[in-house]
Amino acid sequence: MDMRTRVGTALKDAMKAKDAERLSTLRLINAAIKDRDIALRGTEEDAGSCGDTEVLSILGRMVKQRQESARAYEEGGRLELAEKELNEIKVIETFLPKKLSDEETEAAITDAIATVGAESIRDMGKVMGALKEKYTGQMDFGKVGPMVKTKLG
């Protein structure tokens, strides 16, 4: 089942269950996907709608935004708002694949370097591209970048 169908099904289930908190988060996800569809219209990438990889990317960004917001709310003493953001993260993460462990991430980086034939730091873009293509939603690319740089440098 593709990501759009999973979100749509979850949305209907939340409506039936009258789960307002989950429903509002699912509507935000749906809106973000539709916004991306609209942004892609008329571009070279236009294939009618964004695919699963793009949806995973959107969900990853949504999680990251909410983590930053929760941190800011906690620093500002607005714990109820921080809790709301953390609850939204839990709902969004139900659609993301399992995060790779540190060992699995290391192995994926080594494999990607070998696959693209990377030899120096100049090949970092190729390695990152290969990782993003295969592991979107499964690893934090903010942390992976320096790891790739270390292995290539």
Write the layout of secondary structure elements.
Elements: H1 3-17, H2 20-40, H3 52-75, H4 79-93, H5 102-116, H6 124-135, H7 141-152
Helix pairs in contact: 1-2, 2-3, 2-4, 3-4, 5-6, 5-7, 6-7
Beta-sheet strand percentage?
A: under 5%
SSE pattern: HHHHHHH
Query: What is the 3D form?
Result: globular
CATH fold group of the largest domain:
Hypothetical Protein Yqey, Chain: A, domain1
CATH class categorisation of the largest domain: Mainly Alpha
Please supply descriptive tags for the structure shown above.
153 residues, mainly alpha, Hypothetical Protein Yqey, Chain: A, domain1, Arc Repressor Mutant, subunit A, 2 domains
Explain the overall architecture.
The protein contains seven helices and no strands. It starts with a helix and ends with a helix. It has two domains: 3-93, Uncharacterised protein YqeY/AIM41, N-terminal domain (Hypothetical Protein Yqey, Chain: A, domain1); 102-152, Arc Repressor Mutant, subunit A. The longest helix is centred in the middle third of the chain and has 24 residues, at 52-75. It has 153 residues and is an all-alpha fold. Helix 6 (124-135) runs antiparallel to helix 7 (141-152). The model has no long low-confidence stretch (mean pLDDT 88).
Question: Nutshell version of this structure?
Answer:
The protein is mostly helical and 153 residues long. It is built from seven helices and no strands. The chain folds into two domains: 3-93, Hypothetical Protein Yqey, Chain: A, domain1 (Orthogonal Bundle), CATH 1.10.1510.10; 102-152, Orthogonal Bundle (Arc Repressor Mutant, subunit A), CATH 1.10.10.410.
